[in-house]
Amino acid sequence: MASLLALAVVAGCTTTSKGDPLPIPSTEKTASDSAPPSSDNGDEELPFAGAPKVENPLDTSRYERDPCRSLTADQAESLNLPRVGTIDDKIPLSIGCVWLNEETRGKVRIVFIVDDPRGLSPEYDANNRGEYELFEELPDIEGYPAIVRGIDDRAKGNCVVIVGVADDMAFATELSLSTANVGQKDPCKTASDIAGMALQTMKGA
């Protein structure tokens, strides 16, 4: 089974300028394309494979049902994205929401892995098997463990940040910087900020 995740800016972090996020070109791999296969044993004690334990699990059930709630209209607008996202239910094992600026081509996708509820553990397992070109642990985002993983597309303005909100649940923030910001901003920093924004929304609810 594959861990599939997707995209997000922490309030209080650097403000994203107009035209900030950029879309992942159709030829590029997204979080879904580079997701790790699950192990044959579905009865692992969580967490495993070196994944950190989530000490304060967050109930994200309402956002798993509707990921477009993950960013408020004001948050999306502050990123120069449409105020309302579009549900993406064609991601294997997951459900996501996409915010795309048609003019700047900035794009964010936030994805919850609802059909493989094992949190960050499959990501660490896949990395231990050498599945990822890029894998980095990040400082906690809003108190929750996070990683960057996938193919290394940072030079093209793309990055996937995955946050563990419980031992059995994680969400991904997939970011493509706007064309104007490619090479000007760190896409993984921006994706981390957006993930933090989403976490603030979820914690506030």
Please characterize this protein's 3D structure.
It is a single chain. With 205 residues, this protein is α+β, with helices and mostly antiparallel strands. The protein is 18% helix and 23% strand. It has helices at 61-65, 73-78, 121-128, 187-204; strands spanning 86-88, 95-100, 107-112, 134-141, 144-150, 158-166, 169-176. A 7-stranded antiparallel β-sheet has the order 1-2-3-7-6-5-4. A hairpin with a 7-residue loop joins strand 5 and strand 6 (158-166). It starts with 60 loop residues before the first helix and ends with a helix. Mean pLDDT is 85; it is low at 1-32 and 37-41.
**What is the spatial order of strands in the main beta sheet?**
1-2-3-7-6-5-4
What's the end-to-end separation, in Å?
Answer: 30 Å
What is the rounded Rg?
A: 15 Å
Q: List the total number of helices.
A: 4
Strand content: 15-25%
| DSSP helix fraction | 10-25%
What overall form do the CA principal axes indicate?
globular
DSSP, total strands: 7
Low-confidence spans: 1-32, 37-41
The run of helices and strands is: HHEEEHEEEEH
Secondary structure class reads alpha+beta
What is the average per-residue confidence, as pLDDT, rounded to a whole number?
A: 85
> Main β-sheet, in a few words?
7 strands, antiparallel
